[in-house]
Amino acid sequence: SVSQSKTSSATTSAGSVASSVTAATEKKADTHVGWAGVHCSFAQLTNLKDLILLDSDSTDTVFCNPEYVTNIMTTYKTLKIMTNGGPMVSHQRCTVPHLGEHWYNEDSITNIMALCDVTDKFRVTMDSLKEKALLVHMPHKVIRFTQMKGGLYAMNPQDPKNNGSTPGQSH
Predict the structure, then answer these.
(1) How far apart are CA 27 and CA 3, in angstroms?
(2) Which pLDDT tens digit goes with each residue over 119-148?
(3) Residue spans of alpha helices (H) in the chain
(4) Confidence at residue 104, expressed as pLDDT on a 0 to 100 scale
(5) Are 111 and 158 spatial neighbours (Cβ–Cβ below 8 Å)?
């Protein structure tokens, strides 16, 4: 069989979260808490598999929550992403509603929508003076990815506040 490998050298935010948890749990006598401590506390308070991150640092969309996708299938293609937590290899694809076919990996710590994939289909805006959120303008609603503690932009589809607003509706 033919094997196709795609390697991304960009570090994903999800990889940063994974390595932050490891780094924060290793106690050292002279520990400096910086951005890793913020990500660690964020990861401890939130089930990351329930969130979807909109990530400008990722080159591939990868989902891990089977409730958010359909048609999970094994493929002959391989995706290898280098993260702070080490390499992540995916051999499955899935259909993401409104985005099409992308990668699926049940071992991923969170669902990541690559900003480049989203902007291929939808307009994305941000007005940081108004609110710290990335707005995805779909045909009949606007979905908010709000800035979480630690600076990541995420939304939880299970949260009723994330059902989206209709265009023109005040926020």
Answers:
(1) 42
(2) 999 999 999 999 999 999 999 999 999 999
(3) 13-25, 35-45, 115-121
(4) 98
(5) no
Is residue 77 classed exposed, middle or buried when 0-12, 13-18 and 19+ CB atoms within 10 A define those classes? middle
Whether residue 143 contacts residue 162, with contact meaning beta carbons closer than 8 Å, is answered with yes
CA distances from 163 to 34, 38, 48, 134, 144 (A): 34, 27, 18, 15, 9
Q: Which residues contact 4 (CB under 8 A, 6 or more apart)?
A: 76, 77, 78
Query: Which residues does residue 83 pair with via DSSP β-bridges, in sequence order?
Result: 86
Query: Burial of 115 by CB count in 10 Å (0-12 exposed, 13-18 middle, 19+ buried)?
Result: buried
Closest residue by Cα to residue 147 from 84, 56, 73: 56
SS3 of the chain: helix, strand, coil, percent, to 5 = 25, 35, 40
Q: What is the pLDDT of residues 36-93, one digit of tens each?
A: 343 444 444 568 999 999 999 999 999 999 999 999 999 999 999 988 888 999 999 9
Residue 110, token pair as written in the block: 């969170």
Q: Is the predicted pLDDT of residue 98 greater than 50, yes or no? A: yes
